[in-house]
Amino acid sequence: MTSGYRVDVDGLRGVSIICVVLYHLGLESFGGGFVGVDIFFVISGFVITNLIYKQVKNNEFSFLNFYSRRVRRLLPAMLFTLSLTLCVSFFILSPQHFERMGGTLIASLFAVSNFYFIGEVGYFDVGVTFKPLLHTWSLGVEEQFYLIWPAVLLFIVRTKNTPLRIAVISAASIASLISLAASWYFGDSKSAFFFTPFRIYEFYFGILLVFLPDFHLKNIYREVIFLIGASLIVLTVMFVDLTASHVSTYAFISALGAAAVIFSNNPNVTGILLRNRAIVFVGKISYSLYLIHWPVFVLISYYYFTPVDQLSAPAIFISLALSIFMYFYIERPFRYKANSSAYNHFSKIMPAAAIAISVLAAHAWQTDGWTWRFYDSKHNNIMDYVENSRLQSNENFEKHNVVDKNIWSNGKTNVLIIGDSHADDMLNALTSVDNNRARFNFRKLFFTEDCFRDDNYKPSPVHKILIAASIRGNRIDDTQECHERRLAVAKDYYLLNSDIIVFANNIPVLGVGRVPNYIKFIRELSDAKIVLFGINKLPYDPPTLLLVKPDNQNINTVMFGMDRSEIIQVNAFLESVADKTAIPFFNDQLYTCPAKTGECLILHDGKLLFDDDNHWLIDGERYFGKLITNLGILSDDS
What is the C-alpha to C-alpha distance for residues 535 and 505, in angstroms, rounded to an integer? Predict the structure, then answer.
């Protein structure tokens, strides 16, 4: 199915980038818009294979020419984006975020940012709003594909050893099937999202289209195939409540839809959807728009401390204006005017520019994000306070966390705090009150909701097939690690001899459905009184906010004005769980950000209470420890 330029493929690019941009804007009706990237991968597989195959057949292919074209196509716009992002970030990002941005820039420039992000936050986490180059992970995946596939394809086409050709083709096909199966098996893990091997099958869908024979289908059949493919894309983008669940399944569906649309080969009637001038133009600027839109969204949101969906008009305007400029004055000259004097001039500057921004980014990465950009004494005072507070908190935890069974049986009331790092904070808060230390023993048990099923979990159709075939379990708690963790907890001496059990976890919105079974498991092991605490989160990191906001602005008020809807949603669900199970519930948010004051309690009596967006500093532990104690949360009649 080889062909020349396909206007409908540019149109499909336009659809893909619109899906991605609107998803990044937070539009609910485009909740699956991130699959636009999966569509890009299918397009890349088709376009690159088609190009190489025709050149090889005509004895025109050379690796030097191929990679020279790739560099001219990708690098100039990438360098412009990275340079602009570095410059703007210099003025507005905190040292912490500027430092991380430096590392990301290096990884992006060398096409390995997908590996870099595997070790950091996931693509759907709240923290992505502080990462202006997160989107470059997909460009890393594409460029890694370009490094491997041309050589494999060249060998397949040119080798005269038929058995060996069949073996290589079979190996490529098997690799694609393994990629597809692995993406389903590992589900929504960060590795499955960012790692190139999990994306091979999407490129392979496009590759297969090149080698399919021309069936000379009647237009009516092509219309039907187009509609089926377009429906699959629309289904995954607009009519599925994804919220980052079953990402691999919907990626497969959208990739299949994209392959069907390309296979339909621009049918007479429905093809107008992809060959009209507007969508084709968006497709032509799609690379520049993809590059620039996410840094614009992140930095404008960061500067105004406002969710980007509330700044959609200026965010889209700036992104479109920059992408059009980049297309006409950066992309096209380098791509189509390789022999012009302007190209020759800029081609000499490009390596120097790459080296320059690499050196600057690396220096920022290794020197704490250039703290000198801010008022040094202010930055040092904040960081010194935070660091000293962390040391005190760690010392307090080691001092008051009971590790001796003899102490646990000394006659005091035993309080076991179950959870993650929030349990550390809670232990420090409760032990900061003298009377609590006199009445209670405290111990932390690391055990989270991760290893419990969500009874409202609904497997996707593909996932149901895998479950029936016993290829993949239908719950995270099917893993051996979780079986071992639950078994260890069931035998835990401190749990079995507790009087009060406190749950304190940083529970994500996708994990709240597991909480009922999490609590049920503990209740079946112990008759102790149970107290459930809500998530104590903020929409932004207070030390950073304190550093980058002007001194004359009240950060308590600024924080209150930020979007806390997800935090409120999680706590509302946890409160309903507590009501149904008849256990006390403490909603931190009612006291951290009380509606009647219109402020969040970040600074209190001149003291910073929060270490980051979900942990207390020593003064926060003391404040909330006293508050919880005075409210009688641990008393017998609460």
Answer: 7
Closest CA to 396 of 442, 350, 428, 430: 428
Asked if residues 153 and 49 have their Cβ atoms less than 8 Å apart, the reply is yes
Question: 608 has which bridge partners?
Answer: 603
Structure tokens at 163: 């058995």
Whether 418 contacts 526, CB under 8 Å: no
Which residues fall within 8 angstroms of residue 469, CB to CB, at 6 or more apart?
none
pTM listed for this prediction: 0.75
Q: Is the pLDDT of residue 124 over 50?
A: no
CA distance 472 to 503: 30
Phi, psi of 551 (to 5 degrees): -65, -25
- Note the pLDDT tens digit of each residue in 217-253: 999 999 999 999 999 999 889 876 544 455 677 888 9
Closest CA to 501 of 528, 535, 527: 528
Query: Running DSSP on this structure, what letter comes out for residue 401?
Result: B
> What does the pLDDT look like over 4-63, one tens digit per residue?
789 999 999 999 999 999 999 988 788 888 899 999 999 999 999 999 999 998 889 999
Supply the Cα-derived Rg of the chain in whole angstroms.
28
What's the confidence (pLDDT) of residue 477?
47
Torsion over CA: 138, 141, 144, 145 (sign): negative
Q: Is 529 helix (H, G, I), strand (E, B) or coil?
A: strand
Cα separation values, 252 from 181, 202, 204, 453, Å = 10, 8, 12, 25
Residues facing 228 on adjacent strands: none
Q: Is 293 exposed, middle or buried (0-12, 13-18, 19+ CB in 10 A)?
A: buried
Determine which helix (DSSP H) or strand (DSSP E) holds 500, and give its type and residue range. strand 500-504
Cα 345 from Cα 329, distance rounded (Å)? 14
Distance between CA 139 and CA 287 in Å, rounded? 10
The CA distances from residue 442 to 11, 258, 402, 499, 535, in Å, are 62, 57, 6, 11, 20
Beta bridge partners of 603: 608
∠ CA 108-114-120, rounded to 5°: 100
